[in-house]
Write a structure and sequence with these properties.
Largest sheet: 2 strands, antiparallel
Low-confidence stretches: 1-30
Structural class: mainly alpha
Shape: globular
Oligomer: single chain
Number of strands: 6
Strand content: under 5%
Mean pLDDT: 92
Length: 532
């Protein structure tokens, strides 16, 4: 698996959208000679994982799900764009700050549709293969994995862009994409309801085909299993419940479905909460393959499945790094995202009793409210930069050049779903299903592990679930979507009420997409609000 993923990720890194399907790839997955046995099918499925991972390792979900909350701020010399969290100036046409309308690279959905194209092809081809070519149950399992990946990808598309093209056909001939006059066939945007319905249909197929596995044969969460499919089902059902409520439609069945899926994952899956005893326990959790690994992206320098942190990834945006030459002034303190003191009450209101603040972050007690820099009047001590430690696991590049001071490979997995996430999502579903008592038990379990021994006694358990999800999952790409789903925006002015009403939580579409597909129109809120 690791060699396949590495080669495909390398290809993704050097390929543009238009030359992605190069002859070597076409020979691999389109040629009828390829789909001859189980090994071929496994190779194709691993290729789908590689495409999905290639789309996700660039930290885009961290930027979409965390930086957009406004809790993080860019450093004096680098970090994420402040357009992710600052309101745009839409009155002055010449002002280049158009919020998300200034970030065209994040408005391009091409990487997601590459995954969709590969899943469509792989499902079609494996389904057509004779059952006797596979070991017992393996054909169904492989199909289940691909259905899961297609559902997950469409879930991302629906929560990021809302309305989007719905493509389920396997592309195996140029006649399917080019008409008789040689023009590209265009596909319009389907509704967010239709996209999520497709995700739900696919994930239900995955749940039926996949098994939980046991702790003895657990694959460390890097391959889809029944539990990961049920986690996705919970997410997709709760998002559909949100959409139906927004549209004035009944949503009780989707909430009940979410409860059932998440209960099954919690009760029957081989997962358990990891201890929060000390920094070593947290490092082990994010290293990967822990008891909380429901589904995660495998990032391992030892297995040649990694990337240089100075070239990209979440570490490049969040982590201080020990310079190889020992010069502390090169530790990137001014070049990463950080948490200002004024935002900390939203994340850990019970600090210092809440041990997660110091376990997940460096220098949480810092009072700095402006970025560290050598020219700052107050923020002059690099030791007082509050930074995210979750993904601070590196291995030195043995081929580093003498003038490369932060030549490290990333060496920890990236969680898509972890067990804490699943349990808190179940608590949310319980509350919406009229089972607040069941939710309170989960809330108190999470609070106790964090060092908050006093049980929750408030009268707004949903707000407490949102608080615990904020405290637990910050940095993992979930929070902004949680807040949209529940209209829970306490950190004004990240999402003004009018922007929310106009569905401005959906992203604009890039000019490249609008130009190449004439049937795609701009996301309504962003008409006239982009720089392209």
């Amino acid at each position: 698996m690791k060699n396949i993923i590495l080669s495909m990720l390398t290809l993704l890194a050097i390929s543009s959208c238009k030359d992605f399907l190069n002859p070597k790839q076409v020979n691999l997955v389109y040629n009828d000679v390829f789909w001859q046995n189980e090994k071929d099918a496994v190779t194709a499925v691993l290729g789908v994982y590689a495409l999905y991972r290639g789309a996700m390792v660039n930290a885009q979900m961290y930027e979409r799900g965390d930086v957009t909350t406004g809790f993080f701020r860019r450093g004096h010399n680098g970090g994420s764009s402040d357009r992710l969290y600052l309101p745009g100036n839409f009155v002055n046409v010449s002002d280049v700050n158009k919020s998300w309308g200034s970030l065209e690279s994040l408005a391009d959905w091409s990487s997601f549709y590459k995954v969709i194209a590969m899943t469509n092809l792989t499902i079609s081809r494996i389904a057509a293969m004779n059952d006797n070519l596979f070991s017992s149950g393996n054909k169904s399992k492989l199909l289940g994995e691909v259905y899961f990946l297609r559902a997950l990808t469409y879930y991302h598309i629906a929560t990021i862009w809302g309305n989007a093209p719905l493509i389920l056909e396997s592309i195996e001939s140029s006649n399917q994409v080019i008409d008789q006059d040689g023009n590209l066939k265009n596909v319009p945007r389907s509704s967010d309801i239709a996209i999520m319905e497709t995700a739900l249909k696919d994930v239900n197929e995955a749940v039926q085909r996949l098994e939980y596995g046991s702790k003895a044969n657990f694959e460390g969460g890097v391959r889809a299993a029944k539990g990961s499919a049920q986690a996705l089902s919970g997410y997709a059902n709760l998002w559909m419940a949100f959409l139906q409520q927004r549209n004035g439609q009944a949503n009780a069945q989707y909430i009940a479905n979410a409860v059932k899926s998440l209960e099954d994952a919690v009760t029957h899956g081989p997962y358990s909460l990891a201890p929060y005893t000390d920094a070593r326990a947290i490092a082990a959790l994010y290293k990967g393959g822990s008891s909380e690994a429901v589904f995660e992206l495998n990032i391992s320098a030892n297995a040649n499945e990694s990337y240089r942190i100075d070239k990209g990834g979440i570490q490049s945006l969040t982590c201080k790094v020990p310079p190889l030459d020992g010069d502390a002034t090169k530790d990137r303190s001014s070049s990463i995202n950080w948490i200002p003191a004024s935002k900390k009450r939203f994340i850990y209101p019970n600090y210092p009793a809440d041990r997660r603040a110091d376990l997940f972050f460096g220098a949480w007690s810092s009072t700095y409210d402006e970025p560290f820099s050598d020219v700052s009047a107050v923020s002059t001590d690099r030791r007082n930069v509050t930074w995210l430690k979750k993904f601070a696991a590196f291995v030195e590049d043995p081929n580093a050049q003498k003038n490369e001071y932060i030549a490290y490979f990333a060496d920890c997995n990236i969680p898509i779903f972890r067990f804490t996430d699943v349990k808190l999502l179940l608590a949310e579903a319980y509350i919406k299903n009229g089972q607040a008592g069941m939710a309170t038990a989960i809330i108190n379990e999470i609070r106790t592990r964090a060092g908050l021994t006093a049980p929750y006694t408030g009268d707004n358990p949903l707000a407490e679930v949102m608080q615990q999800r904020t405290s637990e999952l910050i940095g993992e790409g979930k929070l902004f979507f949680d807040y949209v789903r529940n209209n829970y925006f306490q950190n004004v002015p990240v999402m003004e009420a009018e922007r929310y009403r106009q569905q401005g939580y959906y992203w604009p579409v890039s000019s490249a997409i609008l130009t190449s597909n004439k049937l795609v129109q701009q996301t309504p809120y962003w008409n006239g609000r982009t720089t392209w």
